[in-house]
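hey m, so remember when u said the tokens were messed up on ur end? i reran from scratch. heres the input so u can diff it against urs
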Amino acid sequence: MSINHWPSAERPREKLLQRGSAALSDAELLAILLRTGVTGKSAVDLAREMLNTFGGLRPLLEASQRDFCKIKGMGTAKYVQFQAVLEIGRRYLEARLEREDALTSPQHTLRYLMTRLRHYPHEVFAALFLDNRHRVITYEELFRGTINGASVHPREVVKQALAHNAAALILAHNHPSGVAEPSTADRSLTRRLTEALSLVDIRVLDHFIIGDGEAYSFAEHGLI
């Protein structure tokens, strides 16, 4: 049965208007983006099939164009639309951070870093550069590959911090394994960066390790 024939209160768009977006399931939210289904399937049915195929909302949004377009009825135009929605979400979180003190909104900070880093299949080392009121100046991904003392150069981090006129930094990198526990190399690197930046009066406020749905804070564990 077409969604147009559903009771008004059960249609995703009407339900969102009446009860808010949080009241909708993942499939219902996707159905709004899809707008229409395919022969024999409503938009909600198609959305459920996509979620089942990829194993949930996150792997669906992170799917490659090739895998996404294997779903019947999905093409390049829909893939682009989904990626645009994902990027809008990231930029919304970034805009919120720019208006707030990163220290007084640690959950917003962490949520933003997780959306930026947890999907990479390789390690990425990044930094949030902050002003003297701990507001975000910019986010920058600095190094890629295996994160260790040889691949992350403190002088380059210091150089970028000075270029952005930053007063403080929040460091972050991901663990593709999904386990957010610091290695010996992570601890050593954090000490080296903290010492190097302190020489130019720039503080390291925290270093987050981003795993799969979890994160480790060096500051919370007294390591900074």
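this time it looks ok to me. The CA atoms of residues 208 and 217 lie 5 Å apart. if urs says something different then somethings off w ur setup not the seq
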